[in-house]
Design a protein that fits this description.
Blueprint lengths: L13 H8 L12 E6 L2 E5 L4 H9 L2
Antiparallel strand pairs: 1-2
């Protein structure tokens, strides 16, 4: 807040976010790969997730 930077993502809609995520360098063979935290200092890169779970997560306010 002190730097006057946005602290919330713009309201673009789920479909627009998924379209934009499709442009990311982590996309392989048309699949969006996510970096998921598995604990402190531990993460995994995966495309093995239910797409509906991603849509529901992006829809949260």
């Amino acid at each position: 807040k002190a730097a006057n930077l946005p602290i919330e993502a713009p309201k673009l809609g789920v479909d627009k976010y998924i379209d934009l995520m499709g442009l990311d360098k982590k996309v392989v063979d048309g699949k969006i790969r996510l970096v998921l935290q598995q604990g402190i200092g531990k993460s995994v890169v995966t495309s093995d997730y239910p797409v509906e779970a991603l849509r529901q997560t992006l829809a949260l306010d």
